[in-house]
Design brief:
Blueprint: H1 5-24, H2 28-32, E1 35-43, E2 49-50, H3 52-64, E3 67-80, E4 83-94, E5 99-111, E6 117-126
Parallel strand pairs: 1-6
Antiparallel strand pairs: 1-2, 3-4, 4-5, 5-6
């Protein structure tokens, strides 16, 4: 199945919006469902976080530690038909509106048979302290 470039952009933006909404709702399960079954997080200073259950626990822990909002801004998308790579910036915000972290990310996405884009590999690093 060939995915058109504008469909890729729209699909990734839609998935990011779902991620942001689920985060505000403190719904770590909905966040985990945005990842493939064999997805991995590659957070700085930690080992791989593998699979949906571990990913759900990771994001729930972030919420439990006071992060209640994430903003994602895609800067670039590289389209490889049923795989895409997005590069962008993120901001994590706490309950008082304070910025808890901000930085850059790269995500490898997989397009599934249901027409959805799922996060496959997710890596980010902070920009705090680099100014």
């Amino acid at each position: 199945m060939t995915v058109l470039a504008n469909e890729v952009h729209a699909g990734l933006k839609r998935a990011d919006e779902m991620f942001e909404t689920a985060f505000v709702q403190a719904n770590s399960r909905a966040i985990a469902d945005l990842y493939t079954d064999d997805a991995m997080l590659l957070p700085a200073g930690m080992d791989f976080v593998k699979g949906r259950q571990a990913i759900q626990q990771y994001w729930q822990s972030a919420m439990d530690n006071g992060v209640n909002q994430i903003k994602l801004h895609i800067l670039e998308i590289e389209d490889h038909n049923n795989t895409a790579i997005s590069t962008g910036e993120y901001t994590l915000t706490g309950s008082e509106g304070q910025t808890m972290d901000r930085g850059k990310y790269m995500v490898m996405w997989k397009h599934n048979d249901d027409g959805e884009w799922k996060l496959y590999r997710d890596i980010w690093t902070t920009s705090v302290g680099t100014e």
